[in-house]
Design brief:
Elements lengths: L2 H15 L7 H5 L3 H9 L15 H21 L6 H32 L3 H13 L13 H12 L4 H10 L1 H6 L11 H6 L6 H10 L9 H11 L2 E3 L16 E3 L9 E3 L2 E3 L4 H12 L2 H15 L6 H14 L3 H10 L14 H11 L7 H11 L16 H4 L2 H18 L5 H9 L5 H8 L4 H10 L1 H4 L2
Antiparallel strand pairs: 1-2, 3-4
Helix pairs in contact: 1-3, 3-16, 4-5, 5-17, 7-8, 8-13, 11-12, 14-15, 15-16, 20-23, 22-23
């Protein structure tokens, strides 16, 4: 690779594959940008957050139990004439501790994204966390979202897809988010006593979103059969402590007495395994299904290449998935090797989170305080760990490029420039981050700005910086 091509590739590596260029990043990796990327994908520590202050599983479990206990006590003690305002306040006070845990996780995650030298690994964490979404949109999941990303996504990013899939299904965050923790087989021992019912939420999303996808042709019967196989998969808590008296609260547990008895048939295959092994066998087969390989390949190509990625690139990624048995580093290496991923044209419009992080990295801001982060999130509209549905955040420009959304980016850029713009040379910052991708017209506009603050706004809002 000649010097000019290597320099161009370095800018692509840090901006398209990574979280955005900090001053000097492209120059540091210019000798071999691809080696910088491949050096991260099989390095488990590249995916970790080193923050000992983050909440532990014990803290999250205790906070949730305190919230639930407060609600139980309130239900028995609340006066019948309680006003709507009193009802809201009664929930808001115990909820505050849960929200504080999620806020600490979001702040740490953001600071890590600003500081990390492993931008590709961090982008992959964000991608997979979005694919296997757990959102802090329910009281029961608020305390778990950061732990879920750390214990499922970051912990298994160098393993196989099936390892991440199983870890996801067994994590308290997902079991609570999609109501699997309360799903009981109607004909199980407990189901017959309690007249409890089956919950199909997790089974449906596993098929629709996490593995084969709607185009694979699964049926409602497949959803129900997978849901039956998953019964008994729950967490240790007040309701289940008797079944695992020595297990720490919040841990995954399989309770045979909740499991729907009998064989299951999913996608035409019969599963005679008993108990926990039944669902495990189904999940492993779903992970190895050709439709899963294609769905994962399509989503990766859409995230890194274009909203409508080339079919050839998708097929190469799917092939890497199939031949490696879903080994994620192999699939990620195929993405690095895809010629389409190195196109000189930046085809991906940044999401609000990408815009926020890349802007702060451009200015070499290695930290952010809680209030500015909260204000930015509220304005730009993509809060960490708060995707609107199990499908995660959209990954197409059509969702993020509306006029009102662009105006909010402009407003935030102006606020940032008022605080930092006077001490910057925005043209030099942009050249250092994007290199030859910047047009002459953009540079002229920045250099003709009335002030450096105004020039910084123009740099952040430039078409070149808005895309990766």
């Amino acid at each position: 690779m000649d010097t000019i091509e290597s320099q161009r590739a370095a800018f692509t590596a840090v901006n398209r594959f990574g979280m955005g260029a900090r001053p000097g990043d492209p120059q540091r990796i210019a000798a071999n940008p691809r080696a910088w990327l491949t050096g991260q994908i099989e390095q488990p520590e590249a995916f970790q957050i080193d923050d000992p202050a983050l909440p532990t599983r014990q803290i999250a479990s205790a906070a949730l139990e305190q919230f639930l206990q407060a609600q139980r006590e309130r239900q028995t003690a609340a006066p019948s004439n309680e006003s709507a305002a009193q009802q809201v306040a009664a929930v808001a006070t115990p909820l505050r501790a849960l929200n504080q845990l999620a806020a600490e996780e979001a702040l740490s995650r953001t600071r890590h994204a600003l500081r990390t030298d492993h931008g590709f690994a961090e982008r992959l964490v964000h991608f997979w966390s979005n694919h296997f979404t757990v959102a802090a949109t329910k009281a029961t999941t608020i305390a778990w979202v950061g732990l879920y990303e750390r214990e499922v996504i970051r912990a298994h990013a160098c393993e196989r897809f099936e390892d991440m899939l199983i870890a996801m299904v067994q994590h308290p965050g997902m079991l609570l988010y999609l109501d699997q923790a309360q799903s009981i087989g109607p004909n199980s021992l407990i189901g017959q006593r309690r007249r409890a019912g089956l919950n199909e939420n997790l089974a449906r999303e596993i098929l629709e979103l996490h593995t084969i996808g709607v185009d694979a042709g699964y049926s409602q019967t497949d959803v129900t059969e997978l849901a039956r196989a998953l019964t008994g998969w729950t967490i240790v808590g007040t309701r289940t402590q008797a079944w695992a008296p020595n297990a720490p609260s919040g841990n995954f547990i399989f309770i045979p007495a909740m499991h729907e008895p009998g064989d299951r048939t999913v996608l035409g295959k019969r599963y005679a395994q008993w108990g926990e092994q039944q669902a495990l066998a189904i999940l492993r087969d779903l992970a190895r299904h050709p439709a899963t390989a294609r769905r994962v390949a399509l989503q990766l190509a859409r995230h890194f290449i274009a909203d409508e990625p080339p079919a050839a690139a998708v097929e190469r990624l799917a092939q890497a998935y199939r031949t490696s048995g879903g080994h994620l580093p192999t699939v990620h290496r195929a993405l690095i090797d895809a010629p389409e991923a190195w196109s000189a044209e930046s085809l991906k419009f940044k999401t609000p989170a990408e815009f926020l992080l890349s802007s702060l990295r451009l200015l070499d801001q290695q930290s952010i305080e809680p209030a500015p982060l909260r204000n930015a999130i509220n304005l730009l509209g993509q809060a960490p760990f708060r995707a609107p549905s199990p499908a995660g955040w959209p990954d197409r420009a059509s969702h993020w490029a509306a006029p009102d959304a662009i105006m909010k980016r402009l407003e935030w850029s102006q606020m940032l420039a008022e605080r930092l713009g006077r001490r910057e040379r925005p043209d030099e910052r942009l050249i250092g981050a994007l290199g030859a991708q910047i047009s002459t017209a953009t540079l002229q506009a920045i250099r003709r700005a009335e002030s450096q603050s105004q020039g910084l706004v123009l740099a952040l809002m430039s078409p070149e910086f808005q895309r990766r």
